[in-house]
């Protein structure tokens, strides 16, 4: 939600205005609640991309529409001056260069394997596409 609240993009501003004016009927308290609403009603849920990939690999009744709305990275936090900082950084870079991070994601994100549909993922959504629903 923070992406929409603080955005300088007019489409995101409009989306936030719509969502905040209908908080009770639109916003949910957790990913689990959002997923349940998708499964049981006429509801679309915006979710962080890594989480939605994980969830859709395990629940064949869900699908991800489009690609990323924005792009975020992940990091590992350590205390200031930690002797582990450089070691962790080097280890992550090495895993990334060797393709092992991708292999681990494939191993742990892939669920039971939903049957492949001809077009499981709809075409990518851009800001203009999703803004139109608001």
UniProtKB/TrEMBL annotation:
This is GRIK2 protein. One of its GO terms (molecular function) is ligand-gated monoatomic ion channel activity. It is found in: Membrane. It comes from the Eukaryota. Coiled coil: none annotated. PANTHER family: IONOTROPIC GLUTAMATE RECEPTOR (PTHR18966). The keyword Oxidoreductase does not apply. The keyword Ion transport applies. The lineage of its organism: Eukaryota, Metazoa, Chordata, Craniata, Vertebrata.
